[in-house]
Q: What sequence folds into this?
């Protein structure tokens, strides 16, 4: 495949970056404001879901509505993040402007009625939709379009998680075809910090996670167990990817009527909640739905989660996303990793909070194929003291999770 960057001489790179920045700066402000509004709505519907458990029983109807709005107003938008990545690699039909409102509505509805999903997909698609609209309106050349869309991914990721450095690295690392887009690095950094700053200025507060400092910055026994845990985190990422793709294939094979697929998924989720006697695995999963429940936050304490919490979150999320509900995969992956890390630490006699943090970033590293960005995420979220353990866990999980990732286009 011919690389877009090769169509520009070295003397044209700097004007290209400058032109991109003129577009990226206002785009990042809009992205930060849009994501702030989305996170505010997500917080409100999560509270409603926790307070009114009967909403779960309306999840089948919610699934039909989500299918209908995509069918009526933009089926192409259903490809989500993969469509944006395809457009960066091979500019073609552009990113639909309808993607932003559709994914926002779909994600809010999914969370209100108890589906298990995340938020990063919505943020990235919102930013990509804004960027695509600007690129199409201004009739930008492919090289400029590519940089603007990379910056949009950076802005969306940074704003939704509060990690601007991670967002800028992630937007470059997730693009596997062709050469690394270093010409997009400055626009990606600018976009990430502006969108993050605007989101914070709008009153959004991100969850804080703490890892207590170790007695020694480096311990060989902890490093060896981190390496072993990295394999487990990679296998968990592999299981999640296989489950997600498996549910999509099985639902398409056995439920030929498209609008019935989310109904089938919703009924299975309701049945699982009744059988397990808990709502811990519905919704975002950052904070517990009930006192003493499993969540990302509770995974950082010794008795916060069960030994198989990570497995059930894989099941609930694969069913939710695989049958047509909307949202991201990343926050569920944080839940899976943090709870698995808690379990491994409990069995292996390791610090619970450290291994919960390692799982938090490493399962995502394995699933997204972005170990460098996830190592940086560990630094931004938990501090730099344990960076050696972060890197070991993320890179081993990356290699242990197989070749396929959640952002694999084909």
A:
């Amino acid at each position: 495949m011919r690389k877009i960057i090769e169509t520009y001489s070295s003397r044209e790179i700097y004007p290209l970056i400058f032109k991109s920045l003129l577009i990226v700066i206002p785009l990042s402000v809009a992205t930060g404001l849009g994501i702030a509004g989305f996170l505010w709505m997500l917080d409100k519907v999560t509270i409603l879901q926790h307070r009114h458990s009967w909403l779960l029983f309306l999840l089948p109807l919610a699934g039909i509505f989500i299918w209908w709005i995509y069918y009526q107003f933009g089926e192409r938008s259903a490809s989500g993040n993969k469509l944006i990545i395809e457009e960066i690699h091979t500019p073609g039909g552009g990113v639909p402007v309808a993607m932003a409102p559709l994914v926002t509505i779909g994600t809010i509805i999914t969370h209100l009625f108890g589906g298990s999903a995340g938020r990063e997909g919505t943020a990235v698609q919102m930013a990509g939709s804004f960027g695509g609209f600007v690129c199409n309106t201004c009739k930008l050349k492919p090289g400029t379009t590519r940089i603007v869309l990379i910056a949009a991914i950076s802005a969306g990721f940074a704003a939704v998680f509060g990690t601007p450095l991670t967002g800028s690295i992630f937007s470059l690392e997730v693009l596997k075809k062709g050469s690394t887009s270093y010409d997009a690095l400055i626009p990606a950094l600018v976009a990430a910090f502006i969108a993050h700053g605007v989101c914070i200025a709008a009153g959004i507060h991100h969850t804080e996670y703490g890892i207590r400092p170790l007695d020694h910055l480096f311990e060989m026994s902890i490093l060896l167990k981190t390496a072993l845990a990295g394999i487990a985190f990679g296998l968990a990422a592999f299981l999640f990817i296989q489950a997600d793709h498996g549910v999509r294939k099985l639902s398409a094979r056995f439920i030929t009527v498209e609008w019935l697929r989310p109904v089938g998924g919703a009924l299975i989720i309701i049945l699982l909640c009744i059988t397990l006697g808990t709502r811990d695995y519905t919704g975002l999963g950052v904070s517990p739905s009930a006192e003493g429940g499993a969540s990302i936050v509770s995974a950082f304490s010794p008795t916060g989660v069960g030994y198989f919490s990570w497995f059930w979150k894989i099941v609930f999320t694969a069913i939710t996303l695989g049958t047509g509900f909307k949202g991201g995969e990343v926050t569920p992956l944080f839940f899976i990793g943090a709870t698995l890390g808690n379990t491994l630490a409990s069995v292996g006699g390791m610090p619970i909070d450290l291994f919960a943090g390692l799982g938090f970033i490493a399962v995502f590293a394995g699933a997204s194929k972005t170990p460098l960005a996830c190592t940086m995420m560990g630094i931004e979220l938990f501090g730099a003291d344990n960076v050696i353990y972060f890197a070991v866990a993320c890179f081993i999980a990356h290699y242990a999770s197989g070749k396929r990732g959640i952002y694999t286009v084909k």
Remarks:
- The first helix runs from residue 10 to 51.
